[in-house]
Amino acid sequence: MYPLYCRSVATNVKLLQQLRVTHILNVTEGDSYIHVNTGAEYYVGTGIIYHGIPANDVGYFDLSVYFEEGADIIAQALAYNGDRGKVYVHCQKGYSHSAAIVIAYLMLRHKLDVQATLATVREKREIGPNDGFLYQLCQLNDRVKKD
C-alpha cells in the first residue's frame, strides 16, 4: 500500500502504471459514496488485473469470510510473471478494510501472529482496522495457531 489517498490512487491508472502495479484488490467494492466504484471494466486495456471485495467499514461486517480469498489474491498477484507482480490493496482511505486484509494475508501466508503483524504494518504506515475487524483478526490468530 502506498501512503497516498487510496481512492485517488486506485482511480489514477497512469500512476498505477508508473508504480508498475499489476493487480488491484479493492476491499471496498460497490457503487455508493462509501465505496470505491471501480471494477474490472475500469482497468480494461491497462494491463492491470482487478479483484473486488464488497466490504463495509462497520464493526458488525464479517470481513473474515474474505480473509482466505484476499490472501489468495495477494499471493497470486505477487507470484505473477515470475514473482514480479505488484498488488495495490486499497479501500477508501487505506486505513481499515485494506489493512485488515493485508494483515490476514501476512498471518495466513507468513504465519505471523496478529500482534507481530499489526506492529510490522504499523511500522510502514498508519492503520486502524475497526474493532470488529480486529476481533476477527484475533479469531484468525487463534485458528492459525492451531494449524
N→C terminal distance:
28 Å
CATH superfamily: Protein tyrosine phosphatase superfamily
Any idea what the radius of gyration is?
Answer: 15 Å
What is the highest CATH level, the class? Answer: Alpha Beta
- Might you state the CATH topology name? Protein-Tyrosine Phosphatase, Chain A
Q: Please tell me the CATH architecture by its name.
A: Alpha-Beta Complex
Oligomer: single chain
Describe this structure in words.
- One of its GO terms (molecular function) is protein tyrosine phosphatase activity.
- Pfam families: DSPc.
- Belongs to the protein-tyrosine phosphatase family. Non-receptor class dual specificity subfamily.
- The active site is at 91 (phosphocysteine intermediate).
- One of its GO terms (cellular component) is cytoplasm.
- With 147 residues, this protein is mainly α.
- It is built from six helices and three strands; from the N terminus they run H-H-E-E-H-E-H-H-H.
- It has helices at residues 6-10, 13-18, 67-83, 97-110, 114-124, 131-146; strands at 23-26, 49-52, 87-90.
- The two termini are 28 Å apart.
- The chain has a three-stranded parallel beta sheet with strand order 2-1-3.
- It has a single domain (6-140), classed as Protein tyrosine phosphatase superfamily (Protein-Tyrosine Phosphatase, Chain A), CATH 3.90.190.
